[in-house]
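Narrative summary of target 7.
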Amino acid sequence: MALRALALAALSAGLSGCGTLGYYAQAIGGHAGVMGRMQQVEEVIRTTTDAGLKRKLQAAQEIREFASHELQLPDNNSYRTYADLRRPYVVWNIVAVPEFSMQPRQWCFAVVGCVAYRGYYEKSEARAFAEQLRADGFDVHVGGVRAYSTLGWFDDPLLNTMLTPRRPYLAGVMFHELAH
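Modeled conformation, tokenized:
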């Protein structure tokens, strides 16, 4: 599965006229880094000494069951693993608009199409690209993102960035991402 995804990503990068190879490389590497930190939720619950983390992961399992059985959201392998990224956000998104405009710039990608943001796994890379856009006359916002969906390409893990003390927030994020 991972090999297939990497081949697809490499092909997409080569065929896309709207993105740079460097951008695709950081996206592939960043997501691979997330995947490399994945552990089975049940294993983390069994072995962690962090009572707060254990409670949050148990709540996530309950939310996951409710999503599948009551809301009829996909009963797949998403959110059955956990990844502690050791940072507050999984990615930093950039939104840019021309000065005095409300129309955001669009970036187009071979697999997902066109979107009004561009995400980076490293905050420093997001800030550097934001500075380039500002130099080109754009008004720019860089914001941290706690969760994202791979749109069914991969089994999405629970992330430490998603696990806030607010159970309704976690439920909303999980329901939203599973609905993709």
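The first strand starts at residue 38 and ends at 40.
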